[in-house]
Structures are given as structure tokens and as C-alpha cells.
Design brief:
This protein has helices spanning 8-20, 28-42, 56-70, 88-99, 109-115, 117-133, 135-138, 163-168, 179-205, 216-221, 229-239, 278-284, 291-298, 302-312, 318-331; strands at residues 52-55, 172-175, 256-258, 273-275, 337-341, 344-347. By secondary structure, it is mainly alpha-helical. The chain folds into two domains: 8-221, no CATH class; 226-357, no CATH class. Strands 1-2 form a two-stranded antiparallel sheet. A hairpin with a 2-residue loop joins strand 5 and strand 6. Helix 2 (28-42) crosses helix 3 (56-70), helix 3 crosses helix 4 (88-99) and helix 4 (88-99) packs antiparallel against helix 6 (117-133). It is globular. The structure holds zinc ion (ZN). The site of zinc ion (ZN) has 8 residues, from helix 12.
Length: 359
């Protein structure tokens, strides 16, 4: 048995080899891998060679979160995510959306969980079981079943595995030594590649989409600016109508900026949101902000953020943002350039890092 690839580059090559071989019949593998990478970033082990246990239900939650926006109608219809007649994961997520009254609307998954805890729990179970029956044990194999597991032990999984078997294995998959660290380090490279493959798959599964139609990528992975509108007005009231980065007074319809870029980790919690002017938002785009800026965002008065959160029924997700930021910065090579303002970049230097960045 392979005891893990300590070299992230070799790990990345093996993942790409699996993804490039054979046509996918569903986007589940891409979703599972994305969820796994994000989990590793947010649970980066202090020791690079450490193994990691990943709860399957935690992965299932991330997968639900990914499909949550994707199952909304696009040009009047739901996009197919599978070439099979029944697509269990999108169906389960759609059921939850309907139960929460989120059809077509910008309601967040967090709010749906509060509104319909039982339906959410059932959805999570359904998705967790689907994950161990299908994509998890196919993720590290070539079509036809060849290949040696290089991410985790999947010997107990098969297409009809029961919930009892899942629970008998602690409800977790155990990543081999070094895999969690390797995946976290590869996040910045793999995630954009996964999104490109995903858009290609969805186009292939939805032949009615014209080659020059609309923004499929935006529908699948973009962020609705309108969905963030409630956060904008509430943040203005709490912190004033100035750009978080350059402090210019803001126009009425200014952007709400994800401090940790949405494309790196899609965290919508208030702890990751600031008000920005168009110039800063456009200049920052997908760049990682400097540690100093991240620190300033995390140093905002927690009580004020909590008040805002309560007023608009929006999660703060402070701990999640801290964990994600720690994983992202620690996974970056030392000396990487980070965004420090329009036209300004600084080299990443963790030697004088703030407390939250230490392990
Ligand atoms: Zn600005």
C-alpha cells in the first residue's frame, strides 16, 4: 500500500492523470476533490507528513455547499450535472432548497439549515452515502479500477456500501501521510483547473448550451453580487461607508469584497467580507491579500460583527475564516507576492506573522 506522496508535485501529477483519463459521467468526482482540498486547507496539519482523518459528513456538507448555487435554474432550466437519468446529489440539494423556500432566490445554505434542520440532516446523510458509494472510491483509480490508492484507503467502499459500514469505519476517510499538506499546498493550482474541467463537463452534459452562451462558469462558480446586498448595507451601518482597503468614501452600489478571494475558498461569512471601492476590488480580483490586510479584517470588533450577523441573519464564520487563512498562507511558498493595495504588492513573510497564523 502506498503510504502517501510526500512530494506535492508528484501528488498533483497523479491527480491530474486520473482526471484526464476517461470521460466523466457526473461532476461528483470534481466536487469531491474540491471539497477535500478545501477541507485540507482549513485543517492544515502542523506537521507536513501527518495523516488526516476527514469526516465524510463534513465532505458532504461542502459538496452540498458547492451544488447549492449550481442547481439554481440557468436560463430557465437546471443544468445537468450527470449523464445518468437520476442525479442523486443535485436532486437532494434541490429538495433542500425547495423545503427552505429558496427556489431561484439568494437564500444561503446556512439559513436553510436553520429553517429546515431535519431536511438538511436527511440531505447530508443522502449525500454522504452517495459519496462513499461513488466518487470517493473512484477518485484515485483509473477507469476499469486500475491504479494504487494514493490519497486514502478505500478498500471498504463499493457501490452498495451501507450506512452501517460507513459508521463502522468511524464515518471518516483517512488520508495517507503527507496527503493533507500536499493537497493544501496544491490548492491554488488545482482549484482553477478543476473549475475549467467542471465547466467543460457541464457544457458536454447540456448540449443545448450554445458555445458562446452566457456565462456558464459564472453561474457555477461566480458570486452573485445581488446576494451580498444585505451584507453591504449592514456593514456600512456598522463600519461606515469607506473602502476597507484605501478608505475612500464609497458609492451607493459599491462592491462587497471577499478578503480571502472567493475563487480560493468560497467563504461568505461576515468575517471574510469587507466593503471596497471599485478600484481596490478590481485591482485585487483573485489575489491573496497581504497578511497585514487579512489581519486587519480579522481584527475587526467581534461584537460588532456579531451584531451585524444577528441583524441580517447571516453567519460570521470567524473560526472558519481564520482556519482557511492559516491554511492558505502557510501553504504558499515563502516570498510569494500578495496584494497590498492597487499597484502594490508585498512578499509573503511568515516570520513576523500574527498569532492566528501560527500553529
Ligand atoms: Zn479602495
Amino acid at each position: 500500500m502506498n503510504e502517501g506522496a510526500e512530494d506535492p508535485l508528484a501528488l498533483g501529477q497523479r491527480i491530474v492523470a486520473v482526471l484526464e483519463t476517461g470521460a466523466r459521467t457526473a461532476t461528483y468526482k470534481l466536487a469531491t476533490l474540491t471539497a477535500l482540498i478545501d477541507h485540507c486547507v482549513e485543517h492544515l496539519p502542523a506537521d507536513p507528513s501527518a495523516p488526516l482523518e476527514v469526516p465524510v459528513r463534513a465532505l458532504a456538507h461542502r459538496v452540498v455547499e458547492i451544488y447549492w448555487r449550481q442547481v439554481r435554474p440557468f436560463e430557465g432550466q437546471q443544468l445537468r450535472q450527470s449523464s445518468q437519468p437520476v442525479a442523486r446529489i443535485p436532486r437532494a440539494v434541490t429538495t433542500l432548497r425547495e423545503a427552505a423556500g429558496a427556489q431561484g432566490a439568494g437564500l444561503s445554505l446556512d439559513l436553510a439549515m436553520i429553517r429546515c434542520p431535519e431536511v438538511y440532516a436527511a440531505t447530508l446523510e443522502d449525500v454522504a452515502l452517495t459519496l462513499v458509494r461513488q466518487p470517493i472510491h473512484r477518485l484515485q483509480k483509473l477507469p476499469g479500477g486500475g491504479g494504487v490508492p494514493f490519497l486514502y484507503d478505500d478498500s471498504w467502499m463499493h457501490d452498495q456500501v451501507s450506512r452501517r459500514t460507513l459508521d463502522a469505519h468511524g464515518g471518516v476517510i483517512r488520508l495517507f501521510h503527507g496527503v493533507a499538506y500536499g493537497l493544501a499546498r496544491l490548492s491554488g493550482l488545482l482549484k482553477p483547473a478543476l473549475e475549467i474541467l467542471w465547466v467543460e463537463d457541464v457544457r458536454r452534459m447540456n448540449r443545448h448550451l450554445d458555445a458562446n452562451v452566457p456565462d456558464v462558469a459564472g453561474h457555477l462558480f461566480g458570486r452573485d453580487r445581488t446576494a451580498l446586498a444585505p451584507a453591504r448595507s449592514a456593514l456600512k451601518e456598522a463600519f461606515g461607508a469607506r473602502c476597507f482597503y484605501c478608505e475612500v468614501p464609497l458609492a451607493a452600489n459599491n462592491p462587497v469584497d471577499h478578503v480571502l478571494p472567493w475563487s480560493r475558498l468560497g467563504i461568505d461569512g461576515l468575517a471574510n467580507l469587507v466593503l471596497a471601492c471599485g478600484r481596490c476590488n478590481g485591482s485585487k480580483l483573485h489575489a491573496l491579500p497581504s497578511v497585514e490586510l487579512m489581519d486587519r479584517a480579522l481584527s475587526r470588533e467581534p461584537a460588532v460583527l456579531e451584531q451585524v450577523a444577528e441583524a441580517i441573519a447571516w453567519p460570521t464564520q470567524y473560526d472558519r475564516v481564520v482556519a482557511a487563512a492559516r491554511g492558505v498562507y502557510r501553504g504558499e511558498p515563502a516570498g510569494s507576492l500578495t496584494w497590498a493595495g492597487p499597484g502594490r504588492a508585498v512578499h509573503l513573510d511568515l516570520s513576523s506573522a500574527p498569532d492566528w497564523l501560527r500553529v
